[in-house]
Amino acid sequence: MNIEENKSNQQVTAVISHYVRPGRESGYEEWLQGISQAARQFDGHNGVTILRPQSGSRAEYVVILRFDNYNNLCQWMRSPERQEWLERAKPLTEKPENIQVLTGLEALVSLPNTASPPPPKYKTAFVTWIGVFLCASVLGYFLGPYLAVFPYLLRQAIMTGLVVILLAYLVMPRLTRLFYNWLHS
Fold first, then answer.
1. Can you tell me whether residue 176 is helix, strand or coil?
2. At 42, which CATH number?
3. pLDDT one-digit tens code per residue, 64-119
């Protein structure tokens, strides 16, 4: 298998940002629900996360779209259905969308500022290692005694599943903010 084949078979994340016109937020929210539903119909769709603007800040919405591989993402991004949805968004948004496509671990540490390139892999690996170490240590300390009754593989499956969930939703966003300047220097 060559490098290009390998890259086309790994999960891919598209980070898409839109600046919504003032007063058009409710229309954009409806549009967002519709386009998200349309994307779910495409092969390889692995979920969407929407980061809404904080109150008092510029109305930037960030959509984190995950597909199982690059080819399936491209099918959605180039589809006539998506192009129709983008036409509907024009009166709601201030400028064309900004898209960043990420694969691998850099997707965990590149989301807060969509305009910056992914950090170097060694920095990504180091911050990810910190997150895994913290999660595994804390979970092992508190849950280890309770999980000791389970067979080894089941115990490992539970622990790694919990580590991944904590990393994705709680730990990595905070570590990314904490190490942001170093990651993107």
1. helix
2. 3.30.70.100
3. 888 988 899 999 999 999 999 999 999 999 988 888 887 765 555 554 444 456 67
